[in-house]
Each structure stands twice: as C-alpha cells, then as structure tokens.
Amino acid sequence: MALTRTRGRRTAVAVAATGVAVVTVVAGCSDAGSGPSAPSSPASPTAVAAEPGVAPALATPPAGRVVRVGNEPEGLVVDADGNAVVGVRRPDALVLFDAATGTVRKTVPTQGAPRHLALAGPNGPVLAGLEQTNEVVEFLTTDGTIGSRVGNVGETPHDVIRTADGTSVVTNEHGGGVIFLRDGKVVKSLPAGPPQPGGVAPVGDYAVVADVQGNGVWVYDAARTQQVAQRRIGDRLTHVVATDRSMVALADTDGDAVLIERITPQIEDVAAIPVAGKPYGLAYDQKRRRLYVAGSADNRLTVIDLADPTAPKVIGHLPTARQPNSVAVDPKSGSVLVTGSAAGADSAIEIIPPDQLP
C-alpha cells in the first residue's frame, strides 16, 4: 500500500491483484468537524484559476457512437425522459436532442453560451447561466423553449443550481460570491467568500461551491441565504456534483484528483481518488452508484464505483471524443454522454451505451 498526499490529508491507495484501485482516507483534517469558519484569505484577483487541460488529437477512437449537434459543445444534462440539452458556441445556442440517438430536436439561439447546465428537477427545467449577458434562463425540455429569464445576475454567472427549498443559487464568477434567486428575482447577493466561484451543486437546502483560484469549498444555506461553512481543500477545484443526500464529489483539476466530501453542513473528508489528465466534468449515476470523470487533458473517461464512498474503486477507463469537458448520465437508459468540446471537426457528442461501460 502506497501513501499519497493531497493538501490537508493523507490517502492510502491499495491496488488489488485484479488491478482495481481502492482509495480511502487514512487521516482527515483536524478542522473537519469545526463550526462555520472565516473564509480563507482570498487569492488576489490576478491569481491563476484552474482551467481544463488542452487535449491532444485523438489516438484512439471514442467509445460508443459520435454525433454532431453544434460547435464546441459544453454544459450537458439529460432529464428523466431521455431529453438531452447542451450549450454550443459560434453560433451560441442551446440544443435539445435525443440522448439515445443524438437526433437534434431543436436549436435555440442565445446571446452567449453556458459552461454549465443543471436540472431544476428530474424533468427540468434546465438552468443555464449566460455569461456574456449576465442572465440566467430556464429552458424547457418539453418543447425546447426558454420559459423564464432573469437579468443582471452578477458578473459572469458561471453555474446555477436549485436547492430543495426552491432557491436558485448562482456562482458570480468574476464578481465573487453567490447570488440567490427566487420567483424570477434576485433576493440576495453574498460577495464575500470565493473570489472566483466555479461549479456548484445542491445538497438538500445547501449549495456547495468550488473556488477555481484554490481557496477550497464554500457551503451556503439557500433557505436562509447565508454562508455556513468553508474549508480549503485540494489544489484548484472546478466542478462539483452531488452523489447522495449528504455528499459531493469535487474535481481537483490542478491536483489530478477527485475529492469526496460529506456536507453536514461542515465539510468532512470521505475519500480522495487520484485521477490523471486534469479531471474536469463530473456526472453521477444515482441508480448504479457510479461516478464518471472526464479527463480534459487526456481524452479519457474514468469510471468510479461509489457503492462504498469511503472505499471508492476505479473500475475502468474509456476513450472519449476530443476535449471531454462535460459528462452526463441518461437516467432512463444508463448511457453516458460526453462532450467533445474541441472546435471545428472535433466538436461532438459521444454516446456510450450501458453494455460498453465497465
């Protein structure tokens, strides 16, 4: 058994005779169970932020089938009925397509394109932050129309989710902190906190936010519109996804790892999983308890068994389309969809059916 270090923790990596890696936390941080803490010293506005890797040309054909739905697809969700939505660029649009076949049903032009998309419920609507126009829109998967639009939502709304109480929480990437929306209106802004917030995920009434400048994780109680916890973990985080009612997985893109944390709302270490290739996009299959991690620098999808979150197992890797920045699971079929976010001829959606997954 070899010991590896992630900032603030030690992890044990055990490789069984089968070659399956089992990663567990040996010792957590001393502050994991403390009360709400003051934010870490913010990075300077010119601090380097985590970015996806630059993927090389494909050396291996992608798994599954590859379809084209638009240029530079990024931000991807699939609802309970198998309706998929992705953002594309130049020209900017939201594209509604069939998750099973890749058939485009509708393309809706937008001013700006989202980096992240999220479902407000199993059948939507889809929440999208349009960074160039500082708007948040709700996109309906039933008919491919924009159902509502909220303007003046911070400075570059990067990601937006909806918590269990019905509050939408927006990460204000270039303004710092988060913004709370209810009934189509901004009800509060908390500029203090992450200087450059990236991904956000809902855990009940809590919103868990990753800071891309390396300041760790912030937790907000959306019902009370206030910060309740903060910790510096990992190197530089980008994406975060909920894995059950109390836990999240975070992509430590600059640390080549995925971190599993319990939200109580304090932030408690559960496990750290080494993942090479600048891990970026994340998706979780609740039914099968599988975590999918897109390697933005190596055109590879890592599949992790989270049946026991304290002992996650890397069970396989699959080749992807070029520049896999986003990944989503079709809850209806179990298929996994990956964006090939490279420009031009390499722009693609990869659809991997269940029988080709580990």
Automatic annotation (TrEMBL):
Residues making up the signal peptide according to the UniProt record: 1-27
Keywords of this entry: Signal
PROSITE patterns: PROKAR_LIPOPROTEIN (PS51257)
SUPFAM superfamilies the UniProt entry points to: C-terminal (heme d1) domain of cytochrome cd1-nitrite reductase
Protein name stated in the entry: DNA-binding beta-propeller fold protein YncE
Biological classification of the source: Bacteria, Bacillati, Actinomycetota, Actinomycetes, Mycobacteriales
